[in-house]
Specification:
Low-confidence stretches: none
Strand order of the largest sheet: 2-1-3
Number of helices: 22
Shape: globular
Number of domains: 1
Strand content: under 5%
Distance between the termini: 17 Å
Number of strands: 3
CATH architecture: Orthogonal Bundle
CATH topology: Hydantoin permease
Radius of gyration: 23 Å
């Protein structure tokens, strides 16, 4: 075959037809995992931004600030915590987006670059299983909205013990149905649905202010509230709660920091993915945090308890028409987030385990079925279990993976990738030792070990766990770079990259 295996078009790379033909028989290749052709990279800055708006406007986004208010922080301190956490996690998200856009690689294939053809299952399945947990949580939330929607017409339905589980099942089916239609259906759902979600966000904000007014509290009263030191101290103290909340907010998008190539691979160019994410995520998450904090403070002042889950007020609305509209909005908000953040990645991850046997559609089905095995009623059962039990634990495990990806792509490989070799198994340069890059696995384990032990009750590691994401990221990054200093087999030089590229 030709010496050219990939070609460059305007700074973007794709496999040549000859390379695709040769790879068609490889067990590490199928059309779902194949690099996206440049002609199919159609997502503009708007599409990327609306993707993030669609993912950001969801019930868990509001709870990031409202849960911190429930733990005693003031509304403004909670908003600061969320905003800072999202700006920090945007850095690895942007860095890992680059390879997806440049080479059109989905996340499971990109993972082979650092971990090896078989070792890539470690980050891929870790991210996939975490996403299945989030899929369960989002389906539980969306199911609650479905219950409220049905109850607006059949009030007795909400009293049925099985109602939450019926709603959960219906929402999972809707998620599956939209996702199996592919990237174009997701793109249009995000583009059309996101403006509606902004309206829903405004409605929650207005409702929160109205609730406060009904109890004799002005909007200024809600904003003037100070940190409740009694509640904060009962939760571990101000510094511990703030750092734990910061780690949780960073971890909130820890999954997307890994699988962002699944979406950036469709971007028209680097500017589109960079600007779209910069405009779409931090601004919308800060807005959701502000509204979530106002909501929690309003319920605290009027009802005596800071609610952290906005769906809990749906049965209290009273007006059937408003209940229907708000429930539909919650369903739309939740399904757009769930598909993009929690179903596409595990679907590709499961497909990567056996590309010839497991298609993307089958991966979507597996993702939705596994969600049933999780216990979202526990994960989403309270502010403490949500922040410290769920978010901080998985964030500490995924942080080292993001660090290894970045260290490998920018420091070790210097942004040069032999795309064809990612699908060649033993014949390719990224096979390492038996399909595993043991150095990546070592860096991963060293990075997450201490924060995880801290999250599981080792008192001396309490503060390591409270800073788990940053700690794990820095440690894994440093360890991986040191271990890979002598690596030469997988490295591709600028000269070799030029020799195999057709322009």
């Amino acid at each position: 075959m030709s010496k050219y295996t990939q070609k460059e078009i305007g700074g973007l790379y794709e496999l040549t037809d000859a390379a695709r033909a040769e790879l068609s028989s490889s067990k590490y290749y199928n059309e779902d995992l194949a690099p996206t052709p440049v002609s199919a990279r159609t997502w503009s800055t708007y599409h990327i931004a609306m993707l993030w708006v669609g993912m950001s406007v969801c019930i868990p986004s509001f709870t990031m600030a409202s849960s911190l208010v429930a733990l005693g922080l003031s509304p403004w301190m909670a908003v600061l915590n969320v905003a800072l956490g999202n700006l920090i996690i945007l850095i690895p998200i942007q860095l890992n987006s680059h390879a997806g856009t440049k080479y059109g690689l989905p996340f499971p294939v990109f993972a082979r670059l650092a971990f090896g053809s078989i070792g890539a299952h470690v980050p891929s399945l870790s991210r996939a299983l975490t996403a299945c947990g989030w899929n369960a949580v989002q389906a539980w939330i969306g199911g609650a909205a479905i219950v409220s929607l049905v109850a607006a017409f059949v009030p007795s339905f909400a009293a049925m013990p099985a109602a939450p589980f019926i709603g959960f099942g219906i929402f999972l089916f809707l998620t599956w149905f939209v996702t199996v239609k592919g990237s174009e259906s997701i793109k249009y759902l995000e583009a059309v649905g996101s403006p509606v979600l902004i309206i829903l966000t405004v409605m929650l904000f207005v409702w929160s202010i109205a609730l406060g007014a009904s109890g004799g509290f002005s909007f200024a009263d809600l904003l003037r509230a100070s940190t409740d030191m009694t509640t904060v101290n009962a939760s571990g103290g101000f510094v511990y709660v703030f750092l734990g909340g910061l780690t949780a907010n960073i971890a909130f998008w820890a999954t997307m920091a890994l699988n962002i190539p699944d979406f950036s691979r469709y971007a028209k160019n680097q500017k589109a993915q960079f600007r779209g994410q910069l405009y779409g995520m931090p601004v919308m998450m800060a807005a959701c945090a502000f509204i979530g904090a106002v909501f929690a403070q309003s319920t605290l002042l009027v009802m005596g308890t800071a609610m952290f889950d906005p769906t809990a007020v749906l049965p209290l609305i009273g007006n059937p028409i408003i209940t229907v509209l708000v429930s539909l909005g919650v369903i739309l908000a939740t399904i757009t987030t769930n598909i993009a953040a929690n179903v596409v990645a595990p679907a590709n991850g499961f497909s990567n385990v056996s590309p010839k046997r497991i298609s993307y559609k089958m991966g979507v089905t597996i993702s939705c079925l596994l969600a049933i095995l999780y216990r979202p009623w526990w994960i989403f059962g309270g502010a403490g279990s949500y922040i410290f039990g769920w978010l901080n634990t998985y964030g500490g495990i995924l942080a080292p993976v993001a660090a290894i990806f970045i260290a490998d792509y920018y420091i070790v490989k210097k942004r040069n990738i032999d795309v064809m070799a990612l699908f060649q198994g033993k014949e390719g340069r990224y096979w390492y030792q038996g399909g595993w890059n043991i150095k990546a696995v070592i860096a991963w384990v060293v990075g997450f070990a201490l924060p995880t032990l801290g999250n599981f009750g080792v008192p001396s590691l309490k503060w390591v766990a409270a800073n788990g994401y940053i700690f794990g990221f820095v440690v894994a990054f440093a360890v991986y770079v040191l271990l890979m200093k002598s690596e030469t087999v997988s490295f591709i030089s600028d000269e070799e990259e030029e020799a195999m590229t057709e322009r």
